[in-house]
Amino acid sequence: MRPDEPIAVIGLACRFPGVDGPAELNRLLRSGQTGIRDIPPDRWALWGLSEDLSLREGFPVTRAGTLDDIAFFDRRPFRISANEAPLIDPQQRLALETSWHALEDAGFSPACLEDAPIGVFMGAGSSDYALRMAQAGISGAGNPHCANGAQNAAISGRISYCLGLTGPSLTIDTACSSGAAAVALAGDNLRLGHCDVALAGGVNALLTVEPFRALSGMSVLSAKGETRSFDATASGFVRSEGCGVLVLKRLSCALAAGDRIHAVLPGWAMGQDGRSNGLSAPSRRAQARVILQAVEAAGLTPTDIGAIEAHGSATVLGDTIEISALADVFGDRIDTKIVVGSVKATLGHLEAAAGVAGLIKAILMVRDGFMPRQPCFATPSPRINWDEAPFEIVRDQRVWPGPRRVMGVSSFGMSGLNAHILVSNADISHHQALPAGGRHLFLLSAASPDSLRTRTSQLLETLRAPGADLGKIALATRRRWVGLSYRSGFVAASQEEAQEALTRSLASPSPGPVAPAAEIALNIPSDRADLHRVLQQVWPRYALGLSQAAVPDPGTRPETMEDAVLALHLAGATLCLDAISPSAADGTDLPGYPFDRQRHWFDAVRPARAPRG
Fold first, then answer.
1. Cβ–Cβ < 8 Å for 583, 258
2. Other CB atoms within 10 A of residue 552 CB
């Protein structure tokens, strides 16, 4: 293990204002639009306010970056009880669901990771839900689930617990730089060998009105309902919520495994402001120092950097100091300008998740080779000397050409903790040829009948897309969609046969759940007699859980390996398919798990009774 080994990003997922997933974020960035909107009536109600009353009381904002259905959650894939779910902070719920999608994107089945040495590093700051529950009189005295449901430490801990992960598990709070700090710490732990894979990201949820009023008193909230980073009319930021998660590996391990690599993190650095004009006041010297340290840690020079994803707080002081700090590092460049932008203009300020939002934007830019137009930007700030600074804000989207694309991502916290991470395109082509023709095995599973039906529809739509590769899609389902208790599957030799099988499945009654059997490792080639012996051991469990239409005659031996594996899957076996399924290097995109979300909120919990006097 090299102490300076680059880190590969092999999976990513996000849920941000106006977007549900990296593909939707990509489209939003290219459109030049934003995810900010008027605060909807259901959010006012969730806060215990009405829009009319808030306006009469002079509430400081009318717009924010809010998610739909923040009170809803699918507890079943994570085996969380109906009694516990309403007491779990929505930040934990967002982190669980987004981590699941990120692991799927990385080629893992999240339901099959028991005892995996995967680390979890999540940035988080606020504890709005704990405050709301305390105000409602709900305490640990009335319910044993309150303590873990409300504490931020459980944001990372619950991911590890629910998925059975055994690597380091930390929640990091450095205010606005929490998500970036989590990614940097994950990279350090990977380099030290403390884990082989790491989940890293940040989460934020706007669940109470008090922080709005507090930030308004600091004069950092936008009066226009827009985050106009580096613009002459910048007056502060718009608050937002969401979650972003990356799946990280040491680059050498990712290459050896044949993983799809979205981007590479060659270096990073973190540093504190130290004594400055105030705890939350930015320090030009400290920002410049951490950027230069990150560049040097990556083995690069300032001339190698083509773009900067800035912190971009859209405050007069913050933007001016940030550009000055960047000029201290890149000021000697005279031949080409560096593009500077901030995802806050698109999504608002995600606070503890802001750093990972900027990282995901940067990953999409270097991977796909584009520089998006900065929204909410018209006139450059007159407080910045743009003629002398080697920077520009993109007004029209452009292609980012060249074989190597490198950019830096800054994230600065009100705590004084500054982080800077370098992101580069992978410049690695993985194309793993799969056998042509033959019969292809598709495996599906879900935690509820409705989710299994939706997953079936997802697969049918994927197969109907132009250019769909039957073999690669089948491989992806075998690696990512197994392990949950409601199961289906089929073997198909053609697109038509696969679509017919899915159509029949949608028209048939949903199968009942199977009781998961012990993990079964299939080492192929192996003795076929051994395989059939294993199959017979789980056959009674197989025959009990499904309709006769779905179950072959128990006296019939499966004719092919695909039939045998399908039988084991339907019987409830947890299959280790590495030996018969190559890695996910093909880069096939599949839809994320279709969470069947139900409302879980503290208002369904009976408050603890006051002690008698």
1. yes
2. 17
Mean pLDDT of the chain: 88
What are the angstrom distances between the C-alpha of 301 and each of 92, 287, 321, 332, 363? 39, 17, 22, 12, 20
HEC string of 214-256 equals: HHHHCCCECCCCCCCCCECCCCCECEECEEEEEEEEEHHHHHH
Which of 179, 155, 192 is CA-nearest to residue 270? 179
Do residues 287 and 313 make contact, with C-beta atoms less than 8 angstroms apart? no
pLDDT tens digits, 250-286: 999 999 998 999 999 999 999 998 887 777 778 999 9
Q: How far apart are CA 567 and CA 109, in angstroms?
A: 19
Q: What is the pLDDT of residues 69-112, one digit of tens each?
A: 999 999 999 999 999 999 999 999 999 999 999 999 999 999 99
Asked whether the beta carbons of 563 and 535 are under 8 A apart, the reply is: no
Q: Cα–Cα distance between 182 and 243 in angstroms, integer?
A: 13
541 by Cβ neighbours in 10 Å (0-12 / 13-18 / 19+) ranks as: middle
For residue 11, what are the contacts with CB-CB under 8 A and spacing of at least 6? 102, 103, 104, 105, 106, 107, 108, 246, 247, 262
| More confident position, 546 or 439 | 439
The Cα–Cα gap between 220 and 318 comes to 10
Its pTM stands at: 0.92
Q: Helix, strand, or coil here: 180?
A: helix
| Distance from the Cα of residue 457 to its chain's centroid | 23
386, 338 Cβ separation under 8 angstroms: no
- Nearest CA to 589 among 502, 467, 482? 467
Q: Is the dihedral of CA 276, 282, 285, 287 positive or negative?
A: positive
Both tokens assigned to 6: 């680059």
The two structure tokens encoding residue 33: 């639009």
CB-based contacts of 385-388 (< 8 A; 24+ apart in sequence): 388/327
Between 578 and 507, the higher pLDDT residue: 507
The backbone torsions φ and ψ at residue 248, rounded to the nearest 5 degrees and listed phi first, read: -120, 150
CB 343 within 8 A of CB 431: no
* Per-residue exposure over 165-202, b if at least 16 CB sit within 10 Å of its own CB, e if not: bebbbbbbbbbbbbbbbbbbbbbbbbbeeebebbbbbb
